[in-house]
TrEMBL record:
One of its GO terms (molecular function) is protein dimerization activity. It comes from the Bacteria. This is Spo0E family sporulation regulatory protein-aspartic acid phosphatase. Residues 6-33 form a coiled coil. It holds the Pfam family SpoOE-like. GO terms for biological process: regulation of sporulation. Signal peptide: none annotated. Keywords: Coiled coil. Gene3D superfamilies: Helix-loop-helix DNA-binding domain (4.10.280.10).
Amino acid sequence: MQNKKIEILLKTIELLKAELAQLIDEVAELTNPEVVKKSQELDRILIEYYKLLKSTNKENT
């Protein structure tokens, strides 16, 4: 179950990174509200991913 969640989070991270890169290319402004929103969403997903990895690591040791 946790492996599936990790896979989903990794796919979400890749998608958000691509969307963020595209937004930055399109608007060339890091202060654009959409860029800020995507950046915050990516931060949230990365934190969730690393917490899940940490808990999975503790369970396996």
